[in-house]
Each structure stands twice: as C-alpha cells, then as structure tokens.
Design a protein that fits this description.
Blueprint (H helix, E strand, L loop, with lengths): L8 E3 L6 H9 L1 H10 L13 E3 H15 L4 H6 L9 H7 L4 H10 L5 E2 L2 E7 L2 E7 L8 H19 L7 E3 L8 H8 L2 E3 L5 E6 L20 H4 L12 H11 L7 H7 L4 H10 L4 H19 L4 H7 L5 H12 L3 H8 L4
Parallel strand pairs: 6-7
Antiparallel strand pairs: 1-2, 1-3, 4-5, 5-8, 6-8
Helix pairs in contact: 1-2, 1-3, 2-3, 5-6, 10-13, 13-16, 14-15
Length: 343
Amino acid sequence: MRYSGTTPLVRAKGFGNLPERVERAAGERILFDIFRKEGLPIALRETPDMPMPLHAMVGLFARGESALDCRTFGLDIGEEMTHRAFGLWLEYSAAAPTLGEGIERAIATSWAHQSGARLELVREGDHSLLRYVTPSFEANKRAYADHLLPPMLTFVRLYLGRQWRPDWVEVEYARAPDARQIEDRLQVGLRCKRPATGLVIPTEALTRNRTVVTQKAARVVTLRDVQADVILADAPEPARALSAVVALRLLDGQSDIEGAANLVGLGVQGLQRRLREKGFTYREIVEEARRARAIRLLVETEHSVLTISLSLGYDSHSSFTRAFIRWMGCTPSEYRRANSIRS
C-alpha cells in the first residue's frame, strides 16, 4: 500500500460474519492464517467497534474468497448484513423522514464508521449515484465491493420498498465471466471498472418518505459512541490513525513498532519521522493506548491484574503496576476497587 499521510480506518463490524463463514467452511487454522497474513489479531472478531486499517479489511475479504474458492463470498456475507450491521451511524441515518435526507445524514456522519473513505451522492439528470469511494491502493477489492451492495440496497429499500431494484449497480473491479454470478443473485446489471461501489437511484425517489417503520426510535450518534476505541481522538494525523492501530495490536499483547509500521504501510524510520513532525513519539502513543485499555479492562472485566498486564505486553505484574501508578497515582487493584461497575 502506498502511504498518503494517514491510514484509512474502518470499524471491524464491517466484516460481518466473515470469521464464522471462513471457520465453518475451511476450519480454524485457515481463519487464523488469514488474520495473521493481514497482521490482525484474531481477537478482533470479539471487538466489533475497534478501528482497523481499511486495506486489511479489504485483504480479509480477498483472502477469504480465495481460501473458499467462492466467487460470491463477499455477496454471501453482505446478504446477511443490513444497514444496522454498521451500528449507530446508519441507524441514525435511516431515521430520517425521506431517502434524500437519510443519504445526507449518512454522508455527513460517515466518519463515525470510517476514515479515508467516503460516501457521496452524484446527481446526473434523472438519476443519482449513491457511491462508496475507497482510496487507491494495490489490493483485490472484488469481494469487499460485493459485500457492500446488499446493505446499501436494504438502506434504500427502507424508503422505496423491499422489492425495489436499481437499474444497475457499479463496482471498481474489471469484468470477468464469473461476474454473471453476482448479477444473477442481485437480479441487476453490473457496471464494472467504475470509480466506486454503488447503485443508481431515480433522482425523484430522493423525496420519498420511509415506508418501513422500525419498532423503536433510532439513537443519535454521539461523540462517545464514535470515538470509543480511538485513543488519541483529537490528535493530528498520522498520530490519530496510528493510535487506533496500536490499540488494535494490543488485543494480542503486541506493541512493537515494527509490526505497527508494517500494518500502516511504512518503514520504522518513516513512521518515526512522521510522528516527530507532529510532536509525538511512538512510545507516547503506546503508553496512552495501554493506559486506556488497562482502565477499560480493570473496570469492565474480572480479569486478574496479572492477566491484564500480560495482555498489554508487560513481562510482569510489577512492571505493569509501576506504569499504572505513574499514569493514575494508584495501583491497578486500588483503581478497580474504586471504579468497578456495580450492577
């Protein structure tokens, strides 16, 4: 991947049931191998709100499609996802009274799910194209693009009815004979080698009112919701994106700079240089990520202090305790007693 100054991120919930599908069809060893080759901890499947590099997400889909030798792999996953699979971001958007307003909300708040990619609505006379635009990097985006189409369709169908079909859908990848499998499943024509993944909507339909009513009101996306796992939320890039990568790797107790640099597509020296330009060091980012995760584990779990210290990459209970006293002015056990969630 060519580095462009930041690392595009997306929340892990975007891969849907990919881990379960791969494990069921190919076994646990293949699943672990797919995650390892993308530099991702398998524990990521248990933390759906955790930000992860977009290129690694795309890589998971490509490797899954290859491992299962299944052309419809991405579409299969997407068909089990609705707009709600992406969290409060699209629940908030889908609460808008008209389709046009819902799309405007989704575009305006897409930062709640991702960075570096974007939603857009391009109007062309009688039609409007709802498109998801990803950065350019060397990767096989085919399965990833396919999995986006069903959730986009379910969102639009909240307003235009469950039987509505677009005149066509668009994808970035080149056409091959097996693309017919996607067209047959969707019952829609596929236009390939387009600028983004998306679908066409009659412009007049943007004023349609929602026809599918939810049983409960959608929640508004809050700052706390969308920043829950971004450690340095207010920091400039690349420190903010790197903080998310560091938090991700801590799920496996990994904190080495070599692994983090590789995951964001940089050499170690290049990463250190870019951080220095913004007044950060890698050690500072690791310390803040460890502090934030330590607090969360102490308050929200019953893991022992030793287990937490090892999961954060410390070699002993005592080294973690010294670091925690430096951060919070008390021991981990004292902090837990004072702050544990009580039912």
